[in-house]
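// run 5 | inverse folding | seed 20
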């Protein structure tokens, strides 16, 4: 660790070689249950090590393994929080669109339902045009084109964890703009 602190890249590589596999298999994969998410969290764990290795104090009685394991657990927890917030945001997103999609018994005519679909499509397009292009692209990929998270992340050239944060922010921006557009 001391050599890594002094900028020895080989020492950092040795730390990675010593701890990456056990962190992945014993800490991250069991907590996240998804190989890609565990790999992202492992990457983030070692990024934190690189950025904060000066904060590690062995005299405090904490081993480097314990310190890295704590960082890894925190990264896994953060990923669960983001996933939960994204799920809540998705439910919120779907509920925003629900009033335009609802079919009541009074609206039996297919023409009226088709007209509502056109109104919905136009309103969504207007709202999407007003938000950040990156957010718009995330929403289009994930929800309008129904792509999986991995594909969306690859298209946007980000990690899955970053995509999760991006889509959460996109949904929040969409909701804010939706409320401004629909209530006018």
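// decoded
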């Amino acid at each position: 660790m001391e050599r890594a602190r002094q900028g020895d890249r080989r020492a950092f590589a040795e730390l990675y070689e010593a701890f990456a596999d056990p962190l992945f298999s014993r800490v991250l994969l069991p907590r996240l249950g998804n190989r890609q998410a565990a790999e992202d969290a492992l990457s983030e764990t070692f990024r934190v090590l690189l950025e904060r290795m000066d904060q590690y104090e062995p005299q405090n009685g904490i081993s480097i393994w314990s310190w890295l394991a704590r960082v890894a657990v925190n990264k896994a927890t953060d990923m669960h929080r983001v996933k939960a917030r994204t799920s809540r945001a998705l439910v919120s997103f779907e509920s925003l669109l629900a009033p335009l999609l609802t079919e009541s018994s009074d609206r039996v005519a297919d023409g009226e339902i088709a007209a509502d679909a056109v109104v919905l499509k136009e309103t969504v397009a207007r709202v999407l045009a007003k938000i950040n292009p990156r957010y718009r692209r995330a929403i289009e990929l994930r929800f309008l084109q129904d792509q999986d998270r991995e594909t969306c992340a690859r298209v946007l050239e980000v990690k899955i964890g970053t995509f999760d944060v991006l889509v959460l922010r996109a949904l929040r921006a969409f909701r804010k703009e939706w409320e401004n557009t629909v209530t006018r």
